[in-house]
Amino acid sequence: MARSSNQSRHRLANQILDLIRDAKFEPGHHLREQQLGDLLGVSRTPVRAALMLLTELEIVEARRNQGFFLVKPFDVLHRIEIEVPNSLDQSLYEQLVRDRLAGILPDSLTQSEIAHRYDVDRVVMLRTLARLSEDGLIARNKGHGWTFLPTLDSKLALNSSYDFRLTIEPASFLLSTFKPDAAALERARLQHMYLASHPDINSVDSMQLFSTDASFHEMFAEFSGNVFFLQAVQQQNRLRRLLEFGGYRNRRRVREWCKEHLAIIDAVLAGDYRGASKMMHAHLSKAVGASGAPIVRDKP
Known about the structure:
Blueprint (H helix, E strand, L loop, with lengths): L1 H22 L6 E2 L1 H8 L3 H13 L3 E4 L3 E4 L3 H4 L10 H14 L6 E2 L1 H8 L3 H13 L3 E3 L5 E3 L5 H19 L9 H15 L9 H18 L3 H17 L7 H19 L3 H19 L9
Antiparallel strand pairs: 1-3, 2-3, 4-6, 5-6
Helix pairs in contact: 1-3, 2-3, 5-7, 8-11, 8-13, 9-10, 9-12, 10-11, 12-13
């Protein structure tokens, strides 16, 4: 329960940061608990906990008997994303997948073997197995136990993932329900400009790079107005986090994809959705090449 509460605090702190960025508050702005709670649909207690976290991170200052006040300027805020701690379910999910990819786990195993190997309780284990099943990574045996699916062959998974993404992501821009959010696009543009012009890209944490990359793709899936597109991209990002994380060591490619992302953002801001669709296909094709998977070309 404590871990869940900590996750909620981190998520709410990120939501407060989004509000601050959208409103373009200046340093010294008074962040009122009740106002933030009304805007976010929560009580003052969780808002206060989130503001205390922002205080610990020196983004906000707590003044005795006065409240909370913004400290960081806007040009710094747009680069900040607070990492949400993993839940026990997420930790077990990632460990099972990593161990399977490393060849540590056999094709099939029982719940008793999982519980013994990872020292987890039954509730956490069952939730994790259900999520792995929903993501197409594992299947319940007809008799006893669970079997890993071919999805977790890393090369096969990458090939299939990019083939799938090349099909759906460019198409999202062309849906009649596609509706971009200018504020979200501007935040993403600033984050990418920061990385593209960073004097020492090698010093940037891989988690920040992955978060920027994954959020970019989820943003456009959300703009599609189709929940199935969003769920599909989110599932692919969970898989990418496990299979491609090491790819962020190629920092030259990081600068390249930042510039490609910026071109797509600019096209959408200009209302050129068809051009953005073509750019997304080209961007994903280059990413396929960088991963070693075969590139899928447009059919004539």
